[in-house]
Amino acid sequence: MTLPSVQRVSDTRIDKVVPLVSPALLHHELPLDDDLSAAVVEGRRAVARVLDREDDRLLVVVGPCSVHDPVAALEYADRLAETAARLADDLLIVMRVYFEKPRSTVGWKGLINDPGLDGSGDVNTGLRTARSLLLQVLRKGLPVGCEFLDPITPQYIADTVSWGAIGARTVESQVHRQLASGLSMPIGMKNRPDGAISTAVDAIRAAAVPHVFPGIDVSGTPAILHTRGNADCHLVLRGGRGGPNYGAEDVAGALDLLRAAGLPERLIVDASHDNSGKDHTRQPGVALDVAGQLAAGQRGIVGIMLESFLVPGRQDLDPTRPLSYGQSITDACMGWDTTVEVLEGLAAAHR
């Protein structure tokens, strides 16, 4: 009797497998010292106080769409730290330091996935580069905000983060709702790309309760994670395919949905994405509208998000020519001078 040949049944579409550094080893190489730990905890508490209106400042999450050049990001952090200190009576400024870029189809997936900007996928280098940058931003006195996309990544960097986001494309995912329920910082839930807000409201409710799910622990070992639930989740309005949703009527409608769900009536307006038609020159107009609502007494808006970098606009990632320093390679961003004007306008509206 002839036995059939053994057929490969696993990993038939995997080209290669590369060992992944453990979170514990990365933390050992790039430690969060006691002073920085205290700064992260205080940043989280400050954001939570704004969300709960114990602190009446406006939360502003501002920075590049997605970091691709750590050197330029640090120069941006230097400038932002000075501005944040100057406007601290009115604004709680958190630097947007995003490393994971969700794609509708294909494209550069962010610094962690592809730090070489060449498709080589050197994730270990990406994780080290990302954590190193986060520690340097913290040392400048700025709280950090990140979007969490891959469910494993938080074990490597979440200890440095004071505000987090679940994006429009993942807000409906049970995996990300479970993840948010166990994260140690306030989490903003964005409405879906089609503009639907109820899905984000459902996500806030789901993340507020305990969950049990498989993941990894800090050693990188597979583990069952039991969460307590995250009461600091909140809504982020980013517009949708049907148009923007930052206007007074849209904000009132979103607050009604939160009230009907028994959730705190608070939200953040994202001035970019579909609220600006992905046109960076329209972000100041969105901020001006939000400032007007704040000045008119709208207390449901507790924060705003801005996409901003050193140089306005965006550029394509083209291997045949060098990149312009300080300009986004993903969504178009406001330049630095415009950013300062917008931040000062928001501070004035708060006053």
TrEMBL record:
Pathway: Metabolic intermediate biosynthesis; chorismate biosynthesis; chorismate from D-erythrose 4-phosphate and phosphoenolpyruvate: step 1/7. SUPFAM superfamilies: Aldolase. Keywords: Amino-acid biosynthesis, Aromatic amino acid biosynthesis, Transferase. GO terms for molecular function: 3-deoxy-7-phosphoheptulonate synthase activity. It catalyses: D-erythrose 4-phosphate + phosphoenolpyruvate + H2O = 7-phospho-2-dehydro-3-deoxy-D-arabino-heptonate + phosphate. Its EC number is 2.5.1.54. Residues 50-343 form the DAHP synthetase I/KDSA domain. GO terms for biological process: amino acid biosynthetic process; aromatic amino acid family biosynthetic process; chorismate biosynthetic process. Stereospecific condensation of phosphoenolpyruvate (PEP) and D-erythrose-4-phosphate (E4P) giving rise to 3-deoxy-D-arabino-heptulosonate-7-phosphate (DAHP). Belongs to the class-I DAHP synthase family. This is Phospho-2-dehydro-3-deoxyheptonate aldolase. It comes from Phytohabitans suffuscus. The lineage of its organism: Bacteria, Bacillati, Actinomycetota, Actinomycetes, Micromonosporales. The gene is aroF_1.
